[in-house]
Design a protein that fits this description.
The complex is a heterodimer of chains A (622) and B (338).
Chain A lengths: L1 E2 L11 E2 L2 E9 L4 H14 L3 E7 L14 E9 L12 E4 L2 H7 L8 E5 L5 H7 L15 E5 L1 H8 L7 H5 L2 H13 L4 H10 L4 H20 L9 E2 L8 E7 H16 L3 E5 L6 H8 L7 E4 L3 H13 L3 E6 L1 H17 L3 E7 L16 H6 L8 E4 L5 H16 L2 E7 H5 L1 E5 L45 E3 L14 H17 L16 E8 L3 H13 L4 E6 L1 E3 L5 H6 L1 E8 L4 H10 L3 E5 L8 H13 L1
Parallel strand pairs in A: 2-9, 3-6, 6-7, 7-8, 11-12, 11-13, 13-14, 14-16, 15-16, 19-20, 19-22, 22-23
Antiparallel strand pairs in A: 3-5, 4-5, 10-17, 15-21
Helix pairs in contact in A: 1-6, 2-3, 4-8, 6-8, 7-8, 9-10, 9-14, 11-12, 17-20
Chain B lengths: L24 H12 L10 E5 L14 E4 L5 H11 L4 E7 H7 L1 H10 L3 E7 L34 H8 L3 E6 L5 H11 L3 E7 L11 H4 L1 H7 E4 L6 E2 L4 E5 L6 E5 L18 H8 L8 E8 L6 H12 L4 H9 L4 E4 L1
Parallel strand pairs in B: 1-2, 1-3, 3-4, 4-6, 5-6, 7-11
Antiparallel strand pairs in B: 5-11, 8-9, 9-10
Helix pairs in contact in B: 1-6, 2-4, 3-4, 5-9
The chains are: A alpha/beta (622), B alpha/beta (338).
């Protein structure tokens, strides 16, 4: 554990910035993600708030130097509360021509390009689709260009390291990191320590990477830099005291599920089938045997859902996970869990669709699927997480509702949240409110569909309990005995009670609050899931200029909070910003007859703050 | 402590009216299962019957243990979850030829491959009964059904061979009407630790009546059935016929034994631990060959999947899970803001 201390940058004439977006980009083999992770760590230690996102290529091992093999890592950090990874990078570090080709279009006008000129060979330029060398042909004139032969300078710095050329070249990411450290006045010590630990079995590599880092840093300090390239300082942000770590969405869900199971006093059983971008949750939970977590890689999506249902039937909290196409396969099993009224959690890391769509790109287009996407009147609880850290609380809420109401709960996250990271104050598990599950044990008066008159949840009687032997299944059951029943009036009654049970959960969830702005007025921007960051910043920006706009962000998608209809009715206009073709907007219109307007985006990329701000401004001008 | 009360078949029956067609082979199978359940000494509350969809899958409603009538083809996956979450439960899976080999073929493959400790009873009637008589993946070519009015022509799957191919370590066969044989097979299946696969030829009196008469009918049984016993010569037809390896080939042949035929010493001795022999016995085809019944293959693994999962979790689980979670949350790089 480290303590954040004000590190004194060595030069005092640094320009102060409130926030900066840096994007590292290169070949998959260039160590871009490691570089980003180290920069993140030192930035956190410097006391800045931050948000990060890794942008992996879809190909596992794309040919080197190709545009489709570019791997990127973006970080937004600042002296203020950071809510997104930033609309556009201020600084782009491009390790090869392909990275420049792919990433330049997102760079801010006038932004800084740091490029490894050593890689801009004819062959690499051709592979990236450049005619002339952009570093020399003047096409980058509108940017602040710092072209350095990072490859050669790394080799020079490691002349005496004993590494061969190939090994030495692999240290160039740390040379670049050293330069960026200099640019933002970062302390190198944490990275020195990390390298020593990481390469404890190959001290020569640890020393070489350290030397490369220091050489890059020294270059910044001593070299004559091009016009417009300078050093900056970003003061620490006002961050609440506490112990922090960085957390990705999938890690937070894994921890939340594990914590939720502990609060419910149940074993956690997780079964899933590999699918991008949901597999990371399986990987995370597979390392949690220490917590008694059982993970099961099933033969397919259907089996994954079914095994989780079997585990819930046996008295665990069964959880399965996938992305949209996989959740589609689980649909019939979810229906079985609804009919048998067993707890089940289905985590959907949404991705761009339909069908295979763009597995590595984000979208929020499975809301209809979650709320409505089953045969028959098959109501379930639907929750959504707004940020990586929020996934922890939402996962706990999923366990609470699934076990208390004996129902499937669908937890919607997306490819963006799953992989993005942010600083997270470590939760104190002992302070979380427990919700222990009580299995039915008394045989007197038992039948499997006896209900709690308050929650309408049926009793949970697990195999192994003497005297409670019973049969359940997908066939309709008699309300009063749990036996098979085809009675018309009984099916009406059972359907009604299943729907009423889910609807009643609205009384057990918090009332909808307004995230920022007034509780009534001209415009409410409504969002759910990972659009939280850009909506929040956009609304803050407009409000700072005096615009009458509020931000409402939903966690409970189904049932919705009791007061939501009344709340929305208090605004002249409701703008629903979501990464689909208007799914929440449609549901809000259907539920509350509010004239919700849709701000839709489905290009696989998160909303930019500016896009939402522009939409709000358009409405304000109407 | 009181000695456990010995239960009877009646104790395992439910008060539910059995709703199979009169004369259905399922009645006989139910009777056999209820007959053997008391012998295992497993309490009713520790026993779970899981089924998919189809006529056979109504089975759990008629057994007074825990029961889960699930969805079409998926019972192996649900049963796997049940067993992994509580390995102490005695799990029985009831499926049919459509449920287990068509829509649920993938799950059956994997529950056998993984070797999850449970008894799997596949009622094979070579037809879809509950959906009113379409041909099934085990129907013989030429089967006329509403969906194949001119006769089916795709080759059927041989259930026992499928199971062996999937890596099952216990594969047996019996017939619904063999009320002495079936209970013995069921007991062997229960004794086996791991996934035990039992194919039961079951007559569908409505849609596929008498389809097994070529070997199951009483008058041909002796000539057309070979009842396997480990360590005993592969004899049938009252000992007049036997199976041996055809000289110069890796194939079985039927030989006459005794006067005018070969000596018993030339007849193969059944070795139920031999997967190749089991596969040859499972795939015997043609009117000359008998249908192999009994335990074709029994070769238990050192452990079952569920036991291994349980062992691995128990090896790693922390005695204080809450403290372990707190420790795990703080693993890796952390920093303090004061």
């Amino acid at each position: 554990m480290s303590t954040a201390v004000a590190y004194e940058p060595e030069r005092l004439d640094r320009r102060e910035l409130e926030s900066v977006v840096v994007r590292f980009a290169g070949d998959s083999g260039d160590g871009v993600q490691v570089t980003g992770a180290q920069f993140t760590q030192t930035t956190a230690l410097a006391g800045n708030d931050l948000a990060t996102f890794p942008d992996f290529p879809a190909e596992i091992r794309a040919p080197t130097g190709t545009t489709f093999g570019v791997s990127a890592f973006q970080i937004n950090f600042g002296a203020r509360d950071i809510k997104t990874v930033g609309d556009a990078p201020d600084v782009l570090v491009a390790f090869n021509p392909a990275a420049l080709k792919v990433e330049l279009k997102s760079l801010k006008p006038g932004g800084v390009v740091i490029a490894d000129s050593g890689t801009f060979t004819d062959r690499n330029l051709e592979k990236a689709g450049f005619g002339d060398n952009p570093l020399t042909d003047g096409s980058l004139a509108s940017y602040r260009l710092m072209a350095v032969d990072i490859s050669q300078r790394t080799l020079d710095a490691l002349k005496t390291s004993g590494l061969n050329k190939r090994e030495a070249l692999r240290c160039k990411n740390f040379w670049a990191l050293g330069l960026v450290y200099w640019m933002f006045g970062r302390d190198r010590k944490p990275t020195h320590s990390w390298l020593a630990q990481k390469f404890k079995d190959r001290p020569d590599l640890g020393a070489a990477n350290t030397a490369a880092l220091d050489a890059g840093h020294a270059y910044g300090e001593t070299a004559e830099l091009p016009e417009g390239i300078e050093a900056y300082v970003i003061p620490p942000a006002a961050i609440a005291p506490g112990t922090y770590r960085n957390i990705t969405g999938y890690e937070a869900i894994a921890f939340g599920l594990a914590a939720g199971a502990q609060l419910a006093e149940l074993p956690l059983f997780f079964s899933s089938y590999p699918i991008t971008p949901a597999s990371t949750l399986l990987h995370a939970l597979a390392t949690m045997a220490e917590l008694g977590v059982t993970t099961f890689q099933a033969e397919d999506e259907i089996a994954a859902a079914c095994a989780a249902i079997g585990a819930s039937y046996s008295g665990s909290i069964g959880v399965t996970s996938s992305s949209g196409p996989g959740v589609a396969l689980k649909t019939e099993a979810i229906g079985l869990a609804v009919a048998t009224e067993l707890p089940l959690i289905v985590v959907n890391s949404q991705r761009a669709g339909p069908s295979t769509g763009m597995p590595t790109k984000t979208e929020q287009s499975d809301l209809y699927q979650a709320v409505f996407g089953r045969n028959a009147d098959t109501h379930v609880v639907v929750l959504s997480a707004r940020s990586p850290a929020d996934c922890f609380e939402v996962a706990i809420e999923a366990v609470r509702l699934a076990t208390k109401y004996m129902t499937p709960v669908i937890l919607l996250t997306d490819g963006y949240i799953a992989n993005a990271a942010e600083p997270w104050p470590l939760p104190k598990i002992d302070t979380l409110a427990p919700f222990p599950v009580k299995f039915r044990t008394a045989p007197e008066g038992f039948h499997p569909f006896l209900r709690d008159p308050g929650t309408l949840a049926r009793v949970w009687a697990v195999p192994g309990t003497p005297g409670l032997e019973h049969r359940i299944g997908g066939i309709e059951k008699a309300y009063d005995s749990g036996h098979i029943s085809y009675e018309p009036a009984n099916h009406q009654r059972m359907t009604d009670v299943r729907v009423a049970k889910i609807a009643g959960i609205a009384d057990d969830i918090p009332l909808q609050t307004v995230d920022s702005g007034a509780t009534s007025g001209r415009i409410a921007v409504v969002g759910w899931g990972s659009t939280y960051g850009p909506i929040s910043r956009a609304v803050d920006n407009v409000r700072a200029r005096g615009g009458a706009v509020a931000h409402i962000h939903l966690r409970h998608m189904w049932p919705m909070p009791r007061n939501l209809g009344t709340l929305l009715a208090g605004y002249d206009k409701v703008l629903v910003a979501e990464m689909n073709k208007g799914q929440l907007a449609t549901i809000l219109r259907a539920q509350y007859l509010v004239p919700a307007e849709s701000l839709s985006k489905v290009n696989g990329q998160p909303f930019k703050i500016a896009e939402i701000e522009a939409a709000i401004n358009r409405l304000l001008e109407q | 402590m009181n000695a456990p009360i010995k239960l009877t078949p009646k104790d395992f029956a439910t008060d539910q009216e059995v709703r199979w067609c009169p004369g259905c082979g399922d009645y006989a199978i139910l009777k056999s299962v209820l007959g053997v359940l008391p012998d295992f000494g497993v309490p009713r509350d520790k026993t779970v019957f899981v089924s998919g969809i189809g006529c056979s899958s109504r089975f759990p409603y008629y057994v007074s243990t825990y029961g889960f009538h699930t969805i079409h083809g998926r019972a192996p996956a649900i049963a796997t979850g049940i067993k992994l979450a509580n390995p102490e439960l005695d799990v029985w899976l009831v499926t049919g030829d459509g449920d287990g080999l068509s829509i649920g073929g993938n799950h059956l493959l994997h529950v056998l491959r993984r070797n999850v400790n449970m008894q799997i009873l596949l009622f094979n009637n070579e037809i879809y009964g509950l959906t009113k008589g379409q041909y099934s993946p085990t129907s013989r070519p030429g089967t006329r059904s509403p969906s194949t009015p001119y006769g089916s022509f795709d080759p059927p799957v041989i259930a026992a061979a499928f199971a062996l191919g999937a890596g099952a370590r216990f594969v047996a066969r019996s017939i619904d009407t063999l009320q002495k044989h079936l209970p013995i097979v069921l007991k062997r299946a229960h004794d086996h630790i791991g996934a035990s696969f039992v194919e039961i030829f079951q007559n569908c009196i409505v849609y596929n009546d008498a389809v097994f008469d070529d070997f199951a009918a009483k008058d041909v049984a002796a000539e057309r059935q070979i009842h396997l016993e480990h360590g005993k010569p592969l004899l049938f037809a009252g000992g007049r016929k036997g199976l041996r390896v055809k000289p110069g080939s890796l194939a079985l042949e039927v030989v006459n034994v005794g006067e005018g035929g070969v000596g018993v010493g030339e007849v193969l001795v059944h070795d139920e631990t031999n997967r190749i022999l089991a596969t040859m016995l499972a795939t015997m085809e043609g009117a000359d060959f008998p249908v192999a019944l009994g335990v074709l293959y029994c070769n238990p693994a050192a452990s079952s999947y569920d036991a291994e999962v349980d062992r691995r979790i128990k090896k790693r689980v922390s005695p204080d899970r809450r403290a372990a979670l707190t420790r795990m949350l703080a693993r890796g790089a952390t920093w303090t803001v004061s």
